[in-house]
Fold this protein.
Amino acid sequence: MGCFMAMGASDVIELVEAALAADYTRVRRLAGKIATALSEGEDKDAAKKLRSLIRRSGVPLQASGFVESLPVDSKSRMPLVEEQPWPTSPLFLDENTISVFHCFIEDAKNVDILVENGLSTRLSMLLSGAPGTGKSLLAGHIAKQLGKPLYVVRLDSVISSLLGDTAKNVRRVFEFVPSREAVLFLDEMDAVAKLRDDSQELGELKRVVNTVIQGLDSLDDHAIVIGATNHSQLLDPAIWRRFPYKVEMNVPNAQMRADMWCHFLFKDEDEAKASDVLAAVSKGLTGADIEAIAGAARRRSVLAQRELDVGGIAWAALHSSEGRPQLPPVETLTSGQKIELARRLCGSLALSQADAARVIGVTRQAVRKYLMEGGDGD
Ligand SMILES: Nc1ncnc2c1ncn2[C@@H]1O[C@H](COP(=O)(O)OP(=O)(O)O)[C@@H](O)[C@H]1O
Ligand SMILES: [Mg+2]
C-alpha cells in the first residue's frame, strides 16, 4: 500500500469529488495519475488494470448524469452523442498536418485575445482521408491538448432513423452541445452526403444539410468543432466552407511508417534499422493497417514464445501494401517464401543484401544464394 501513501489523500478526495460530479474527464485524468503512482510503487498489476479501465470505451453520457438533456434518437432511443476517453497512444503526423494542428491549438487556447482584437474565426477543423489514417485519433489529441472532454457524434447513426427525424436529431445535438465546454467531433460526415444517392430523400438531404449549417452557425466563438469525412468532395460546399482549418489525412510517409513500426512493434525501443526496412515494405498502408499487423505479430510471438518474426511481418506488410491484406503467418516463412521475399526486397525495393538478411533472419550468404536460386533475378 506504500504507493497509495505516495499518491496522497488529496488525490482520493479529488477523485471522489470528480466522480460525484460525473466529471468523467477529470476522473480519467486522476485515475491516470493514480496508475502512474501505482506503477512507480511496486503494484504494476494494479496499474495495468487501472489503465485498461481508463481506456475502456466511451462513457455514454447517460451514465454521466445528464439524462434529462441527453439527445437520443426518438425511435431507437440510442444516444446521439457519446463522450470518449482521451487517446493514450501517440499520433504521427506529417509536417503540414502538424503545423495546422499547432495553429489550431494555439488559436483555440487564445480565443479570448483573438475575439478582443476582432480576429476570431470559427474554431472548426475538417479532417478528410481514408479510414484508418488517424482522423479520430487526431480529434482525441485535440481534446486532450485543450483539456476538454471529447463528445463524439456519429452522423451515420444520427441519420439511420425514421425519415424526417434526422433533421430533428441534428438539431438536438447542436442544442445539447454548446452548453458544455467540450470538443464536438462530428464523425462520418459523408453520411449526410450519401443521402443524395437516394433520390427519394433529396428533400430530406436538403433539410439535413440546412440543419447542420444552422447548427454550426449557432455556435459561439469558443465552440470547437472537428469534422471527419472520407471524401471531402462529397460534402456540401456550404458545410465545407464552414471549416476554416482543413487537413488532408494522407497515408503515412516513410518516416511516419518507421515511427509507427517502432511504436506498435518495438514499443519504442530503439530498433531503428528494422523499422526503416519495414517502412520500405509498407508503402501505402495506413496507421491502422500497421497497428493491425504489428499487433498480430506480437500475439504470435507471445503465444509461440519466440522472438518477433520480422520476416513474417515484412511478408504481410508487402502483400498488404499491394492490395492483398494479410497478417503475419502463424508459422515462420517457408524457404519458398523466403526466396520470394529476398528477391522482392533486393529487387524492386532496392534494399541491400545485408538489410534483407536482417529482416528475413538469415545470413547474407543465404540471401545471396536465394537470389541465385531464384533464377535470373529481376
Ligand atoms: N497517424 C497515425 N498516428 C498514430 N496512429 C495511427 C495513425 N493513424 C492510424 N493510427 C492507428 O490506427 C487506429 C485507427 O485510427 P483512427 O483514428 O480510428 O482512423 P480514422 O478515424 O481515420 O478511421 C488509431 O487508433 C491508431 O492506433
Ligand atoms: Mg474514425
